[in-house]
Write a structure and sequence with these properties.
Elements (H helix, E strand, L loop, with lengths): L2 H23 L14 H9 L4 E2 L2 E3 L3 E4 L2 E2 L2 H7 L6 H6 L6 H11 L5 H12 L5 H15 L15 H16 L3 E3 L4 E4 L5 E4 L20
Length: 219
C-alpha cells in the first residue's frame, strides 16, 4: 500500500466517523403532548415533518457535503386524512420545533376548513410567531382564498412583517369570518340568498361579486 493510499484511507475513516457522529447528534422524534386531537399515528407523522426538509450541508460554507432535499411522504400521508387531520395540525402550531410548526401551517393551506383559516389568521396575530411562520400562514391563506387582500399601504417603520401581514388580512377577515362555511369539496363564503361562493377564487375581484353564479352546496 502506497503512502498516498494510506493517507486516503485515514481521511476516509475520519470523514466516516464525523458523518456518523453528526447523525447520532441529530435529534430523534419524540412524542409531543398535544391532547386528544392527535392519535399516536397522526402525531408520529407530525414529528416526521421536522426531517422533511433538509438544507445543503457544506464544508467551510462552500464544498457540498450532502445535498438538501424534501421528502413529502409524511405530508402526503397527513393530507390523505382530509379534514380529520386539521385539529391535530392546529394543536401542533404550539410544537417546540419551528420546522414542525411551519410544515403544519403549510398543510393547513392544503386542507380547506373554517378551522384552518381561523388558525392561520391567529398565527398572523400571534406576536410570538416568527417571520417564517407569518410568511407560511400568509401563503396558506392565499392558497385557501385564491388571492391576497389589497396591500394596506406602506409598512410602518416599527411594524414587523407579521404585523403588516396581519393588518393586510384583518379587514377581509372581520367582514367575512362569519360567512365561511365548509362545503363538500372545500370551503366557501355564504351569501345572503343562502348560496355559497366557493373558494379559492381566481382573483380578488371575484370576492366582491357573490352574485357571479358560482355556487356550491353547504355540508
Amino acid at each position: 500500500m502506497t503512502r498516498t493510499e494510506r493517507i486516503g484511507m485515514v481521511l476516509l475513516a475520519v470523514f466516516s466517523v464525523a458523518l456518523i457522529g453528526m447523525f447520532a447528534l441529530w435529534p430523534s422524534p419524540t412524542p409531543h403532548d398535544t391532547g386528544a386531537a392527535c392519535d399516536e399515528e397522526m402525531q408520529q407523522l407530525i414529528e416526521r415533518l421536522r426531517y422533511a426538509s433538509r438544507p445543503d450541508i457544506r464544508i467551510g460554507g462552500e464544498a457540498l457535503l450532502l445535498e438538501g432535499h424534501y421528502d413529502p411522504t409524511a405530508a402526503n400521508a397527513i393530507i390523505a386524512k382530509g379534514r380529520s387531520a386539521v385539529p391535530c395540525l392546529i394543536q401542533n402550531l404550539d410544537h417546540p420545533n419551528e420546522d414542525v410548526r411551519r410544515h403544519c401551517l403549510a398543510l393547513l393551506g392544503s386542507l380547506p376548513s373554517r378551522g384552518s383559516m381561523n388558525a392561520l389568521i391567529t398565527t398572523l396575530r400571534n406576536p410570538e410567531a416568527s417571520e417564517a411562520e407569518a410568511d407560511m400562514a400568509n401563503a396558506s391563506l392565499i392558497e385557501l382564498v385564491g388571492d391576497h387582500p389589497p396591500l394596506p399601504g406602506e409598512r410602518g417603520p416599527e411594524e414587523t412583517w407579521r404585523e403588516y401581514l396581519s393588518r393586510m388580512w384583518a379587514p377581509w377577515w372581520q367582514e367575512n369570518k362569519d360567512r365561511i362555511v365548509n362545503t363538500e369539496t372545500g370551503i366557501g363564503l355564504k351569501n345572503a340568498d343562502g348560496t355559497v361562493t366557493p373558494l379559492p377564487v381566481d382573483n380578488w375581484d371575484e370576492l366582491t361579486r357573490p352574485e357571479d353564479g358560482r355556487h356550491a352546496s353547504e355540508d
